[in-house]
Amino acid sequence: MDEKILEFFTALLERLSGISYTTGKEYLIESRLNELALSLGYKDINELYQSIVKKGVDSKLLNEIIDALTTNETYFFRDYHPFEALRTHVFPELFKKREVEKRINIWSAACSTGQEPYSIAMLLLEHFPRFLQTYKITILATDISQKCLEKAEKGVYNQIEINRGLPVTYLIKYFKQDGAHWYIDEKVKKLVKFQRLNLLESSMRLSEKFDLILCRYVLIYFSEEIKKKVLIDLWKLLNPGGYLLLGATEVPTVTFSDMEKKLIGKTIFYRKKD
Hints:
About 45% of the residues lie in helices and about 20% in strands. It contains 13 helices and 10 strands. InterPro entries: Bact_Chemotaxis_MeTrfase, CheR_C, CheR_MeTrfase, CheR_N, CheR_N_sf, SAM-dependent_MTases_sf.
């Protein structure tokens, strides 16, 4: 792929989403854009690029470029240990702390096709059903990819997706099979609200604050400058006493005076001091 075309698309992606492709990923960009170009009726990436240069790019095409170039790796109960920490420590603490307000807000940022927020919903249904009756618990799940959100809202998964991380007890209890697909139970779906959101705009678009924010395996795709901006925004949106969970390999590139690092089991959380 021509260097000029590569620079055009990578700059466009970083401007729109904050995602920065590092050197060595050119093959990935080329294969994904080539697939997109063919699906849109163009001969190749060059023809797609020339069309954009001449006609500009509308919001629909921008969304398709974002969908093509973003990584949507996810699965149910990913890494397992964070969910065990939520069950044994974080949720019991939050329910106790919020027993006057009886309200807990949870945000699954960059939720991809929905496995993470649905995992949280199933965890609550399985282990904290009485709190679902007495507290107002909201699970907001956001992503920049419209295609991912559409799949997440349907709550329909294939056998490979089901086999990745989902305990068989949860499969039996919260899914129904129809042919080659598995449909998540409506009582799980109704706990999660999906919304399209660019993480770069979170502080402007979200007015509520959260008691638990999960932003896992996302920062690794951002430049240092964008990582800092996103973390500042996440921290502003976290309630005092709330918890931020990043991916297992991710560490904050900026710290705050009210940030407390907590190791719970095998998982590191970042707690906002009261």
